[in-house]
Design a protein that fits this description.
Its main location: membrane. It is a single-pass membrane protein. Pfam families: p450. It is built from 18 helices and 12 strands. It is of the alpha+beta class and 477 residues long. The protein has a domain of 177 residues: Orthogonal Bundle (Cytochrome p450). β1 and β2 form a beta hairpin. Bound molecules: protoporphyrin IX containing FE. The site of protoporphyrin IX containing FE has 23 residues, from α13 and α18.
Length: 477
Amino acid sequence: MEASTLVPAFALLLLLLPLAVIKLLKPKASHPNLPPGSFGWPVIGESLEFLRCQRGGCPEKFIRDRMSKYNSPVFRTSVLGEPMAVLYGPAGNKFLFSNEGKKVALWWPSSVGKLMGRCLVSKVGDEARSDKKMLMSFFNPEALKRIVGVVDEVTKDHLRIHWEGKDQLEAYSTLKQHTFDLACRLFMSITDPQLVSRLADHFHVFLRGVIDLPLNVPGTNFYRSKKAADSIRKELRVLVKQRRVELEKKTASPSQDIMTHLIANGDENGKLMPEAEIINNMLNLLFAGHDTSSSTLVLIIKYLSELPYVLEKVVAEQREIAASKAGGELIQWGDLQKMRYSWNVISEVMRMTAPVYGSFREALVDFTYEGYTIPKDWKLHWSACTTHGDPDYHPRAPTFDESRFEGSGPAPYSYVPFGGGPRMCLGLEFARVELLVFLHNLINGFRWSLVNPDEKIIYDPMPIPVEGLPIRLRPRD
Ligand code: HEM
């Protein structure tokens, strides 16, 4: 085993040990017809291999190896200190997405719920439905039409300040800064750079403890993460108070951002969201929508540098749109609808390297899947990476081919970068706006090349280039 794998593996062992000991003390129900598979080593289960595959850049290997070993559409394992069934392919995705709230419910490691508090991702059933509905009214296409111009403005400012005049930059960290700035501006109308920078510093610490053992003792990532979350909440509490006053004075409008929307609008019964939950939901949106987008943007840059014939067509499409605009005119919703080829390319980037490798559910009851019993409380995993690499649904799966998305595109449940069913990504349409607007400005402003064409992508837990993807830059014209 390489040293780079041993260190996180050892850390994981330390993290899981107390949790596993607690679990071993629990009596185990006996179930005669469990899916084939192995719970692996005592205490750590198969977590080390799960982790090794992610750090090696191919999380799907963990699943593929077991699918071929057991020759079954479902297998059992134990990762993250939990007994787990992994359901394979479009059929597994369909089962989990369409049984939300019936046989299964969204599950995140307990650290997530403890840090986020009561908000969309820590709720299930009707409560989650109600929160999602309130948030969706800001993220639906009608509402997003109003913000495309702002996204364009913020993107242009970012490129002018951080990219123009540079010969070289580290793409990943720069893009992270951009997606964070954009989220602060659009979700909460924060324009003060010092506040953005303070929030970004806290957020950086916060992220390290989100998927971790929830040990709230000094020295642990979780402890630091909790402190950082408290600091973020303190800043946001001040902001909420300020927005309330502005709303009363009518110097802010209920539709200017998600925060004012949640302050001013109730749920379907007119009940207002408690202030603490508004703040938790803002924290959650920053968490869910920031790294996913920066990771996707960095992958787009990497793939386009490796595929000159694809880049050429993206350039042609984006230049035509730029040429149709008067000088200084911002991108509008209608322009995004013309970026069909570019969106197919982005979709293929997300198929080749899924920004979110998959996620988890919990069994609400004992149920049968493909003839096997899945006991209540077991965790379930669906995998976007594995589904996207399945040659039965994506012929020549390892080859980049954006034409897969022409016409009706991939078969249902075979392309799932944003999940599916009631817990599908809330920010899908927002991400489309963010990614296309960035691509438009990047393409029209710059040419770039990779400093290290062999730079590896690993999952941690999102795909990231190990060296941060340094690129050489030149203005396009
Ligand atoms: C390319 C970018 C993105 C990708 C690939 C992505 C992917 C995903 C996936 C796979 C899920 C479903 C998890 C599950 O089924 O358990 C999800 C959920 C979610 N995403 Fe995204 N996401 C992206 C961007 C965003 C953005 C920009 C936002 C915020 C505006 C966002 C907010 C959320 C939220 C709040 C959820 C939880 C929904 C729920 O629990 O009902 N995402 N995302």
